[in-house]
Write a structure and sequence with these properties.
Elements (H helix, E strand, L loop, with lengths): L10 E5 L1 H4 L18 H6 L1 H7 L3 E4 L3 E3 L7 E7 L6 H13 L3 E6 L9 H8 L11 E3 L3 E2 L1 E2 L2 E5 L6 H15 L5 E4 L7 H14 L4 E4 L19 H7 L4 H4 L8 E2 L2 H12 L5 H12 L10 E2 L8 H4 L4 H13 L4 E4 L34 H13 L2
Parallel strand pairs: 1-2, 1-14, 2-5, 5-10, 10-11, 11-12, 13-14
Antiparallel strand pairs: 3-4, 6-7, 8-9
Helix pairs in contact: 6-7, 10-11, 10-13, 13-14
């Protein structure tokens, strides 16, 4: 279904805007607040990324938001002032393309901030046209949200007006030149939504890539009512990254992030829970389940889990071994910002009752780069082409 052939052999660099570049200080990074990273900061580092050999940049949500990470959207059509302006986005896209690179953005269709004006009106006015844009179990204060996080109410994408609004927002940013989306929490919206979404997007932008995030880690049984996947109770019982879950979007999206690969490489290299033979047997079995044209971008870690280097007890040789295996797989590879310079963390994100993910979202330390590790990554990328 994909015309995005350019994606097949790309190397992707995953950027959390607020934590990558443009901030004045890295102090107080452990607070869930805006640090100051911005779009201009990314523009200033494009030569660094080009030198590393990166071919595609993936940026976190830049839409108007109530939180530093961008996933609590208050306006899908505006750039948050903390990150910059629409002109900054246009400049970033233009300069990325001039360097013969691509750029994809995080898009968040499943939910919005409780401070989004449409949700505020839906709570305030019983007869509001926006009331049916959300799932009120008992109006006005009992509503479905992203899992159990009340700050982000779930959008009713089966409502035609709400669906059109979200799809138009996606089209708006693609019209500026983005090359695709990483689709946040794709297990939240229904398959009906994704079929309509993909059809509408590909009609106007046939060469963009649409990659879903299908992951169930940390989901509680009571939260299953907020997601829309087939046989969800069985999938929930089988774990966060089952092949059946990842395969569910074949024919609807261009691919999904390969959480199964991440789970296996962590078990083999970082924790030693499985041996070499079992690892490669599992990997072979894994890839047999998917058509060749279905993309499964590989990654060692991301913003929602411990950094791989931390799980390796900061053993950089283990990180290198894992990266070599990652780059031996004929799928697009994702590098989470900072991995190439040795960025790690002090504690597991799972040891905190709240905001533990900040451990994996430390600011890029431009003053403390492991030049040998960076050289290793640059060589790995360039030799992979």
């Amino acid at each position: 279904m994909s015309n995005a052939d350019w994606f097949k052999d790309t190397v992707i660099y995953h950027i959390l805007i607020d934590r990558f570049a443009g901030f004045k200080s890295i102090e107080n990074w452990e607070r869930p607040e805006f640090l100051g990273g911005n779009i201009k900061g990314i523009i200033e580092k494009l030569s660094y990324l080009e030198g590393l050999g990166i071919k595609t940049i993936w940026i976190s949500p830049f839409y108007k938001t109530s939180e530093y990470h961008g996933y609590h959207v208050t306006d899908f059509f505006e750039v948050d002032q903390h990150f910059g302006t629409t002109n900054d986005i246009k400049e970033l896209i233009e300069k990325v393309h001039k360097k013969d690179m691509k750029i994809i953005a995080d898009f968040v269709p499943n939910h919005c901030s409780k401070n989004h004006p449409y949700f505020l009106e839906a709570q305030r006015k019983k007869n509001s046209e926006y009331r049916n844009w959300f799932y009120f179990d008992k109006w006005p204060d009992k509503y479905r949200c992203f899992l159990s996080i009340k700050q982000i109410p779930k959008i009713n994408l089966e409502n035609e007006d709400a669906r059109t609004y979200i799809i138009n927002a996606a089209k708006h940013w693609l019209s500026l030149g983005f090359d695709g989306y990483r689709l946040d929490h794709c297990i939240g919206p229904s398959h009906n939504f994704w079929q309509i979404f993909t059809r509408e997007i590909k009609k106007m932008f046939p060469n963009v890539v649409l990659i879903g995030e299908a992951w169930m880690k940390g989901i509680k049984f009571k939260e299953l009512k907020t997601i829309n996947i087939r046989n969800k109770t069985i999938k929930w019982l089988f774990g966060a990254s089952s092949d059946k879950l990842l395969a569910e979007y074949i024919g609807e999206l261009d691919g999904v992030l390969d959480f199964r690969f991440q789970e296996l490489i962590k078990s083999y290299i970082a924790t030693g829970n499985i041996g070499k033979e079992d690892f490669y047997n599992e990997l072979k079995h894994h890839y047999k389940k998917y058509p060749q044209e279905y993309y499964l971008p590989t990654f060692l870690d991301n913003h929602d889990m411990n950094r791989f280097l931390f799980d390796c007890k900061n053993d950089k040789e283990k990180l290198k071994k894992a990266a070599k295996i990652q780059f031996s797989i004929s799928q697009p590879q994702i590098i989470y910002y900072g991995t190439e310079i040795g960025l790690s963390q002090e504690k597991s994100i799972w040891s905190f009752t709240s905001h533990g993910d900040l451990q994996a979202r430390r600011p890029m330390n431009w003053g403390n780069i492991d030049s040998n590790l960076k050289k290793f990554y640059s060589s790995l990328i360039k030799n992979n082409r």
